[in-house]
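the two lines:
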Amino acid sequence: MKITIALAGNPNSGKTTLFNVLTGSHQYIGNWPGVTVEKKEGNLKTNKDIKITDLPGIYSLSPYTLEEVVARNYLLDEHIDVILNIVDGMNLERNLYLTTQLLELGIPTVIAVNMMDLVKKNGYHIDIKALSKKLGCPVIEISALKEKGVEDIVDEVMKVAHQEVTIQHYFSYDIERTIEDIQNQLPSDIVLSQRRFFAIKLFERDQKLQAQLSQKIDIENLIQVIEKQEDDDSESLITNERYQYITSIIDECYKRKNQNQLSISDKIDQIVTNRWLALPIFAFIMWFVYYISVTTIGTMATDFVNESIFGEGFELFGSMIPSIPDFIRSALQMIGVASWLEGLIVDGIVAGVGAVLGFVPQMLVLFFFLAILEGCGYMARVAFIMDRLFRKFGLSGKSFIPMLIGTGCGVPAVMATRTIESSRDRKMTIMTTTFIPCSAKLPIIALISGALFNGASWVAPSAYFIGMAAIVMSGIILKKTKMFAGEVAPFVMELPAYHIPPARNIMRSVWERGSSFIKKAGTIILLSTIFVWFTSYFGFVDGQWRMLEASELNNSLLAMLGRMIAWIFTPLGFGHWQGAVATITGLVAKENVVSTLGILYGFGEVAENGVEYWPMLASTFTIASAYAFLVFNLLCAPCFAAMGAIKREMNSRKWFIFAIGYQTIFAYIMAFLIYQLITFITTLSITFEMLIGVIIMLGLIYLLIRPYPKKMKEDETYDELDFE
Amino acid sequence: MPLTFVGIGEVHKILKVKGQEKSKKFLESLGFVEGAQVTIVSYNQGNIIVNIKESRVAISQEMAHKIMVEGA
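prediction for all of em together
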């Protein structure tokens, strides 16, 4: 028998953990049609005929957030056999609010009370039998984390599937009568089991549902009669009765200890979010995370990959293991392939892809720590701590988490914006988050800093500073445009109880984020290294098409291409073909910039920071043009993979083009201003371009200090539901 | 009085949630309804963390202003 289950529950109720336990690795992750809310589906590990859909985490079935609308449309339209409602046993009262609404949908429901281990440990008691009787559906105790009680879920689901549902909870007499009146007026195409749900929602003046009816019905008079009688609006009446009903359940079924006592989580929060200690604690934790992932473990692992696996080879149990390039080279020579093919494979593909894979260990260590911080509940506090600051330039505290992830890789950073509910705040975060230097941009910084600034210690921090300044400036500028005007959506966020995150979930998160980067190495970067290799080793010499020697690079296709577009970068100081070509390959993947310049200066394979060609770089660039080159490459549209992520997450062609266009133009202007400014300081002469720079600067200052556009109408101020 | 005037650790009953429909309803689904008890856990630059119905919710100053509680 094929059965479809919808898994519903509050955020932080352990829904994802249960879903992972039930389905194992049989999961398909995508988006709900038309919106950018993540949709997960999977088959039961123990029974492939049972399909489970993980609904977004929601608190209610109201029409006010995207997640709620997505979830309830799915429940109404998709002929679900059973709803599996997971509720947090430590927080029963709030969780049952959603349950009372799910039970009105006319779909057989099984309730799984999660975190029972904690409930018992804390000396609480839940009378499961009484709860089941009160709610009119089977209730099971589980602990998703410890995988306890999970088998019982399947048994109960099989039992209730295709059973009739009986209503257990009725509203007060007058409201019930009105609901019945509305039910009778509903169009006949609404099936019997859903008529009560529709009637209650229409009584609450749910406009989204009203619009879904095949024919309009006029029930305004009916509602107003009750509202006058009870002196409250219909929606509040329903909400209050729901909570009264829940209170009566709690009183009967739930015994807790002294409820005014502060929990451990509260005590931790009093320290961690304390107005004086919050920032120092946060700074220390972040310092520790980056210290470990960038300077110690991460670097050791990265050096091992770069120097041993892709460099000199390494010793294992006393025998010498050759490095991958050496191994492949000798293998190719053994089977006797042509020398150009050997060059393509070893110098082009293996070197290019290897350079990228060198970042992986460092990034995985960083993602590991960030996953722990997210999993234990601290990240939610970080969003809270940073909220006031970010609000000043038009973003919310929730924008900060993607930016932290962005220091590793832009792709998971853009995906991490999904936790931001307001679509406007979210779009703005997507547009600005890749300004933060990701780990692939670090070699560019090392290159410029080493070749032109004698490795001065201020260059790298200045890159992060520029990234942050770009975010702040963009936040303010964009917020003052009509598109983004209006208040930042008010910050309301549930803070999960602190807990030790299960290792399984940490590993899953690290893998999901890390794999997007590894995939990029295998696809886009692979193709681009072939392209760069081909276009730099072939070209016309005296009108003759042929393969080139390394010294003839000037004649290559790539050089031709570079010369065609170099003029674009003349105002930024690097209007030569090497700079132009490196920038273009940087659009494919930022880690290409260093290796491309290496090829362009005649080196097949270079170190991560390109130390071999520093002298040549110093002769083609000035201090001003090198820094402008750095700024442009840091801020302009990110790599293909991140652009792809932006396109997916924006879910709109128009917004995608706007985002990429904005980033590129912003980067161009910044690099231009910086080039002109440094040139002025170092030469003390005034050129025509500098005058243009002054005008642009004034324009920029105007955009930053002009007043906010007039406040829009109240109900437009934060429209979180645009389905464009 | 608004929730922002309440000291850390005090327990208060909610009288009314004001403000726009959307934010009001979202607060209601999180448990901010008439008669519910709230405790302030922490303040940070105006934003607050409250304990309500056994869970912790972080809310911004603007929202906290709109939640009216019984005076001490």
